[in-house]
Every structure is written in C-alpha cells, then in structure tokens.
C-alpha cells in the first residue's frame, strides 16, 4: 500500500500587503481584463473552447425554472446563461486568485473592482 506524507512547505503563501489595497479597501485585479479579452480574440482554439464550454454550461432545463421572471423582457434565459457563462469563463478567476510558484491569493468578492 502506498503511503503519502504531507509536509508543511518551507515557503509560505504570499499574502496581500497593505500597499496592494487601494482607496476604500478595493483591490485591483492581478490580471488586466483587456489582456484577457485580447487573448480570447487572438487564439481561435482558445476562443472555440471557451464558446463550447459556455454553450454547454448554458444548456439547462428551463421548464421547471423561474429565471425568466428575473430577466429584462428582451433577453431569453438561454441567452442570458450563455453570456453569463462566457463572461465567467473569460474573466472568472482574474479578480479572485493569482497562482505562482508556491503562492495563491484568495480575495473576498466584496473587494473586487
């Protein structure tokens, strides 16, 4: 039987320093949203994968859902979910985490800009 041992890593995760927090306690995202959008348009394979995943995530059964009651009259629930899933796939993690060699940053959603 294989045994696994977990040890505390010598380097601790990096924490946000006070100089990273701007006025009113808002933290700027680690990645530029415009650069993420540029990457989406510059790589056709990346774009197709994101579109397929967003399309799959937006395919839900709407018969038992009351989502349409909360949406504006000019948008269908499937269109809303497709746009929401596309934006989540494109920009989702940009504002909440940054991964590096051995560091992870987790920011509460209230502090995102």
Spell out the blueprint of helices and strands:
Blueprint: H1 33-42, H2 44-57, H3 77-91, E1 97-99, E2 104-106
Antiparallel strand pairs: 1-2
- Describe the global form: flat
Largest sheet, described in full? 2 strands, antiparallel
Integer average pLDDT: 69
Strand order of the largest sheet: 1-2
Helical segment count? 3
* Helix-residue proportion: 25-40%
Order of helices and strands: HHHEE
Folded structure, characterized:
This is Phage portal protein. By secondary structure, this protein is mainly alpha-helical. It has a domain at 33-111. The chain is 35% helix and 5% strand. The protein contains three helices and two strands; from the N terminus they run H-H-H-E-E. It has a two-stranded antiparallel sheet with strand order 1-2. Helix 1 (33-42) crosses helix 2 (44-57) and helix 2 (44-57) crosses helix 3 (77-91). The termini are far apart. Mean pLDDT is 69; it is low at 96-113.
Can you summarize this structure?
This protein is mostly helical and 113 residues long. 35% of the residues lie in helices and 5% in strands.
């Amino acid at each position: 039987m294989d045994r696994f041992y977990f040890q505390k890593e010598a380097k601790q995760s990096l924490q946000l320093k006070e100089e990273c927090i701007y006025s009113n306690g808002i933290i700027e995202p680690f990645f530029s949203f415009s650069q993420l959008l540029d990457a989406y348009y510059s790589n056709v394979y990346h774009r197709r994968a994101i579109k397929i995943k967003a399309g799959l995530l937006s395919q839900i059964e709407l018969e038992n859902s009351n989502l349409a009651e909360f949406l504006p009259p000019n948008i269908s629930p499937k269109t809303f979910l497709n746009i929401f899933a596309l934006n989540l796939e494109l920009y989702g993690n940009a504002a909440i985490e940054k991964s590096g060699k051995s560091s992870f940053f987790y920011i509460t959603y209230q502090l995102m800009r």
